[in-house]
Design brief:
Layout lengths: L6 H23 L16 H9 L3 H22 L4 H26 L13 H13 L6 H18 L9 H10 L10 H21 L3 H25 L14 H4 L8 H21 L4 H11 L2 H18 L9 H28 L3 H5 L1
Length: 365
């Protein structure tokens, strides 16, 4: 049953990858990044606001879907008689591989491999840690996992203010790896892990408990809109769970929530939005397959896309000196379209290779 309902996951991963490509093309081509502090993105321009804000869904999308795939892999493995210890070790290896990729390839790729940057963490490393932690929790009942994920989100304002001495290396490295955001890491594990474990809860509904596409779509949309409404209520109240004040409901400032590290509103909004998109893809069924078949090419190999598109953008802009942070909205959009055109055959070829090979490294990328 699970294999019949796998398509919307690739749809969602493909959409996230395409959105991520737009955000990163803007990062390399748009002149606003000469002065913008990406941890504090206040805009008075609608176009820039929308490009930046749509990118808010990318990291949460990867984590939610990673959590879902951990549960699905666990579920399938247990049904085949694979031992829990073997599955746990499989997930640990996957997580360690992602952490290694982060500190070697990903960190250096942002500067077109001009230098190594081993002492840094990021979203791929965060996903790796989340996969490792989830490997020990995925066997728990969905209610317990939901309680753990919900408790983390509720406690975020407290957890992210735990004090540490930023003059002591081991303290700030540990704090920024798991709780706080800073120069070492803007994706601390604990706040983002909440989304991964919630993704594993959604997967149990998607691939096991909800027996028809109608039930699957209805429940998915119900959960998604419920999270959006709850986050909006907390934002309107403007107290616990918020970081920034806002000028009025519907203004730019109303939608600016803290991403680094995420606060309660941010995690509820992005979780709701990602789940709603999944519900939309489920509802579409076999409709709009021409566009979905395109984004599925990207979504079938999301890590490959991530590992290739960043150095590609960095090489063109930084090494070749073409339009690096010198353009506007049009330049960013053209760079994005060019990126997708170049990456499409690469992703298609790699996807074909991945399906044919048994090489563990190729299959993990």
């Amino acid at each position: 049953m699970a294999s019949k309902r796998f398509g919307f996951i690739d749809d969602m991963r493909g959409l996230v990858v395409v959105m991520m490509g737009l955000g990163h093309a803007s990062y390399y081509f748009h002149s606003m990044w000469k002065s913008l502090d990406y941890t504090d993105p206040f805009f008075d321009n609608l176009g820039q606001f929308l490009i930046r804000y749509q990118g808010y869904l990318c990291a949460p999308g990867f984590l939610i879907l990673a959590g879902a795939m951990v549960w699905l892999s666990y579920f399938r493995g247990r049904n085949r008689g694979v031992s829990q210890s073997s599955l746990t070790w499989k997930f640990i290896k996957r997580g360690l591989f992602l952490i290694l990729v982060q500190i070697t390839w990903v960190n250096a790729s942002w500067g077109a491999f001009a230098k190594l940057r081993l002492f840094h963490m990021g979203i791929i490393g965060c996903i790796g840690f989340s996969v490792i932690i989830l490997s020990f929790l995925v066997s728990l009942g969905w209610r317990i996992r939901l309680l753990i994920g919900g408790a983390i989100i509720i406690l975020l304002p407290v957890l992210t203010t735990i004090p540490y001495d930023d003059s002591v290396m081991w303290q700030w490295a540990l704090a920024q790896t798991f709780l706080d955001a800073g120069s070492f890491n803007v994706y601390p594990v604990v706040p983002w892990f909440a989304l991964a474990i919630l993704g594993s809860v959604m997967a149990e509904g998607w691939f096991h408990r909800w027996n028809s596409e109608t039930e699957q779509a209805r429940n998915t949309l119900f959960v998604g809109f419920g999270a959006l409404i709850l986050g909006t209520i907390i934002r309107v109240i403007g107290m616990y769970g918020n970081t920034f004040a806002y000028d009025g409901i519907g203004t730019f400032s109303f939608f600016i929530d803290q991403k680094y590290p995420p606060n309660i509103v941010h995690n509820l909004w992005v979780f709701g939005a990602i789940v709603i998109w999944c519900g939309i893809f489920i509802t579409l069924g076999q409709r709009a397959m021409w566009i979905r078949s395109i984004i599925r090419v990207y979504g079938s190999v999301p890590l490959f896309f991530y590992l290739v598109h960043i150095p590609l953008l960095a090489f063109v802009t930084k090494r070749l000196g073409l339009w690096f942070r010198s353009g506007g909205m049009g330049t960013a959009l053209l760079g994005w379209i060019g990126l997708l055109i170049v990456m499409y055959p690469l992703c298609s070829a790699y996807g074909a290779l991945r399906r044919k090979t048994s090489n563990p490294i190729i299959r993990m990328i």
